[in-house]
């Protein structure tokens, strides 16, 4: 039996391999537990993603030596608290959720750390992490006008159409609608069948109505984010508002104008309403929720297109670092770990998470399997919508800091028409006036006409 | 005889009307209560079933979640924010009531000023000060805030009660050798019991029901029950059963407290309205 010999050649080879390995690995990972003793304070709104991710937190703590203190709160509670924390440049939080509707305000005010500096620094980020892998539609809300990135998306809401009882549509001899006219025809055909309303939506008209507005050739602002002159009283906007209000009042269940997201989803799950156009997060439960009575009859499709094209809404929420954080390096390690291809693939494989934003994961087998709903490939529909939003930039209106206030005027405008308090023309003129007032109060310069 | 029958009929009509009105007023609470005993699927059944198999799963979920700690926080904070202002404010109200100087009125008005500004005006200063003092997310921080608001309420509620009590009572006690403090504690306070009860309830209610300051100044450790209930509104779906159970639990202590001191409450709220 011969003894293993360590010759000079072996020693040289070993030393070379060690040297190459040290060069290839980012320095921070070269150290053993580089963040030992530090605590990372994070916050986000409650979502299944963070619930799933939490199960892997011990791995991050083991790898870095840091302790994770990550709190999740209800959506409105989180936004209120974080907005205050950021506006006072606090250091209580190191990693936060960059909420879509606040991203313009938070980035514009300089309250978030420029992550492009971290991504472009090889010492901090291994190029294999592949920042370009995030779908452009999801990332557009996380960037400023110069293209700097302030967050990486963990969730994307891509607006699709779902029919909870596609069997009723088949029975009526109709197909899944691809145009606005076909949607009305399909609603006519299934309205009242088996005590179901043909259409349901929640009360956030400033999200649900805009794709219909754009499909009719209208827009919210003249040329966002540079020119925020509202365009709510144009002939196209008036026509779109009247059309959508009619859709709600004629085909919606009673009380539809006050429905929350959840109520609308529950109505579909219970088989009380058929069509809905909404972000995928609210449509997947039709096929997967334990309480769903429509698992075997649900069908998905792209949003129907209007005379001027198809503009399905898309949004995203990301992870970012407050500018006041004192542990930015650790926060970046967390973001890299949480949104790595490996971690996202694990979450998709183990929990079937439906809203990931990395192209390589979306096009992967695990995601396709998780998003094959009632025999239908919904993953490809999801990717199409995200890419559409990223390419054409039509979602820019949604992240301007003043949109929430303008959105309120839109909500009121649609509600006035649907409740027959005003006709479409009068109501949208009122909405236009209200929007102008709101914008002027916010100090926004508007065009004279 | 006919008059008696008409009177009886009228009385019965009024009684039925009272029951109907009470049911209407109570309807939101009763709806919430029955929702708290339903599963999420039952909550969304249409038409809503009036007879169903009740479940305690929502209450069990509250007990095993962070809501339990938030409920304790609410009890501690609201209790302290009632007791402390009462201890400070009641003697202050008595002193102001017996103060003969012309400045006493102006002084009282300044005390009331703290309640005139909208709470939102104090948010940022409180938030910044608390962050500096490390009082964010602490029960102490919340108690201090509620105390500042409740103190003026106590003084303004209790002063008219003391005003209406004849000075001759204290003077008689003093003649009998009682000190000022003894006169206050042994003669005046027992006579002001309805006022004390009504004031304590209002203080408790203010602290118990507050959402705004608890939302802004707490995170996880000192979160109170009203904020914890909102936490059942998840991004991907609301937990309606738990929201209803949490809402019921939030109402429960106030209801019990009010029932216990009901007798004093009515007297306390009307007492002091007419002097003498």
Automatic annotation (TrEMBL), chain A:
Transmembrane segments in this chain: where? none
Chief location of this protein within or outside the cell: periplasm
Q: Which InterPro entries match?
A: Bact_solute-bd_prot1, SBP, TAT_signal
Short name of one Pfam family for this protein? SBP_bac_1
Compartments where found: Periplasm
Gene Ontology terms: cellular component: periplasmic space
The record's section on PANTHER family has: ARABINOSE-BINDING PROTEIN-RELATED, DIACETYLCHITOBIOSE BINDING PROTEIN DASA
Family per similarity comment: Belongs to the bacterial solute-binding protein 1 family.
User: Could you identify this protein by its name?
Assistant: ABC transporter substrate-binding protein
Q: Which organism is it from?
A: Falsiroseomonas bella
Lineage, top ranks: Bacteria, Pseudomonadati, Pseudomonadota, Alphaproteobacteria, Acetobacterales
Automatic annotation (TrEMBL), chain B:
Topology term for the membrane: Multi-pass membrane protein
Q: Which GO terms describe its biological process?
A: transmembrane transport
- Bilayer-spanning residue ranges: 12-33, 71-95, 107-128, 140-162, 183-208, 240-261
Q: Name one GO cellular component term.
A: plasma membrane
Query: Which Pfam families does this entry report, sorted A to Z?
Result: BPD_transp_1
Record-annotated ABC transmembrane type-1 domain positions: 71-261
What PROSITE patterns has UniProt attached to this entry?
A: ABC_TM1
State if Transmembrane is listed as a keyword: yes
Q: Which UniProt keywords apply?
A: Cell membrane, Membrane, Transmembrane, Transmembrane helix, Transport
Q: Give the protein name, as stated in the record.
A: Carbohydrate ABC transporter permease
Its source organism is: Falsiroseomonas bella
